[in-house]
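Worked example (supplementary).
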Amino acid sequence: MVATTVGLGYISGLVTQTSVDTWYPTLNKPSFTPPNAAFPIAWSTLYVLMGIAAGLVWSRLDMQREEVRKGLTFFAIQFALNMLWSYLFFGLQNPMLALVEIIILWLMIYETWFLFKKVHKIAGWLMVPYLLWVTYALALNAGIWYLNR
Amino acid sequence: MVATTVGLGYISGLVTQTSVDTWYPTLNKPSFTPPNAAFPIAWSTLYVLMGIAAGLVWSRLDMQREEVRKGLTFFAIQFALNMLWSYLFFGLQNPMLALVEIIILWLMIYETWFLFKKVHKIAGWLMVPYLLWVTYALALNAGIWYLNR
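After joint prediction of all chains, the assembly is encoded as:
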């Protein structure tokens, strides 16, 4: 799963990098669009926080085997969908398809949060900033789709 | 610590974003420079892995209080230095200062790895890709400094 995710991410990245620099600046943006610099900083922090959450849940494997496995499976799925979103939005330059996908991503993060908090209270809380940020990203994606349709 | 880190990161980011797009492409690069797309993909994965490692170590707090606290302190220090590097390299456009700092960063990651592996074997292994990547980044920074001095 990790290998697939990284591989998928790498291919996506190769396709998408130019698009970030050339296509994205030309789009009409909603008023609540943050400065570009906010994205790498937010994501660095959120990736570390979601990782810590997954580590705390993993540590309960021997106590709640089924719940932990299910939680970590959903964690892997949401991470793969997170990487896929970049490919759909920037690689395919398709905000509508990306919008459909980010709704599924949001639901998978919600499910991961729901499973994590049953296993480890702090792990649940550590997923909250991520869920809030993706809620915001979803609104941003919707705004960009609407203003450029 | 987290708030300071995020705040520092945010200010750094505001300063550095333009630099990534305009200054970095003009630099002479060593032959082993990866495509730009490699950076966000590598970092996303490494942030999640280091987070999982920190979560696993955190889970041992009640068993090895002192070692865990020390490990997580070094983890916070290395993460702050990781954010600071972007500011020195891109914000100040100073590869020499960034090179000095990345050597300290490397040593802090090494110390974090050393402390983590004593607390939790898997957590130690999860820090290895990060240590290898920063070794590579150090060489890249040195090459860029040398070719543009």
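Two points are worth noting when inspecting this output. The mean pLDDT of chain A is 90. DSSP finds five helices and no strands in chain A.
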